[in-house]
Amino acid sequence: LHRAQRHSDFLPLIPSSVAMVARSRAPPPSARARLRVRDTRRLAEMMLHRPATGSSTKTLKADVNALRRFRGKACPHFGKRGVVEFFAQQGEGEGETSAPPRFNKYAGWVEWKNAIFLWVNAVGGSFDNAFANGGQQINWYVGGVNPTERSPVVRRLLQLQRDTQVILFIRPRSSDPYINCGPCSYVAHNARKKGFEFTWSLKEFSSLKKSEAFQGIMAATKAGAKKHARQAAKWA
């Protein structure tokens, strides 16, 4: 027999009772191996556009450590679902998930137990998300059908608890991945604006503005503004 053959190749030659003992003594798969299998399965489900089968994000926690590590970087998985699955706290404990979380992909936000993700298109989209104060402040719209101060997500944003972070995810264009722009703080809101406008300030702007990904957002915003100005002048 060839020396390179694995021990498991010989199990069929061993009496069944001995083989069962040999298998029972085999070490269980490592945690890293289990995570690898799980992540491969999730990626396949996402690419095949299968519906998420896990718990609602409202009952789960976002991974704040991963959010901190990837601040100022583009999410390696595309779209809202990619962001949600990438930053879901993994494991089997309370507030953790072992299956793709469920959320409303049509909303401009995602609620977690410990965070609220806000989605922004720097260029294009249903609303004009404009930057101010050198890029540190940005307006964001709730959207949906007639949002008011009594709307659940608006109430939560206006009455933020200390253990809840508001995390801003911005993509330069709809065809680009979302960039984790980190936590933001409340500046103002305007219920009279169509879509219910909030103004947020990026808490980590001093370090964020140095990242290549965020600079790409600013460049796309400026290019979009120039294009809009040219179109307006054309029809003036």
Description:
The chain is of the alpha+beta class and 236 residues long. 31% of the residues lie in helices and 18% in strands. The protein has seven helices and seven strands; from the N terminus they run ααααββββαβββαα. A seven-stranded mixed sheet has the order 1-2-5-6-7-4-3. Strand 5 (165-171) and strand 6 (179-190) form a beta hairpin. The protein is globular, with a radius of gyration of 23 Å. The model is unreliable at 1-24, 34-38 and 231-236 (pLDDT under 50).
- Helix percent reads 25-40%
Number of strands: 7
Question: What is the residue-mean pLDDT, rounded to a whole number?
Answer: 79
The percentage of residues in β strands lies in 15-25%
The ordered H/E elements are: HHHHEEEEHEEEHH
How are the SSEs placed, and which strands pair?
Layout: H1 16-24, H2 31-47, H3 64-69, H4 79-86, E1 109-111, E2 115-121, E3 131-132, E4 137-141, H5 152-158, E5 165-171, E6 179-190, E7 197-202, H6 205-208, H7 212-234
Parallel strand pairs: 2-5
Antiparallel strand pairs: 1-2, 3-4, 4-7, 5-6, 6-7
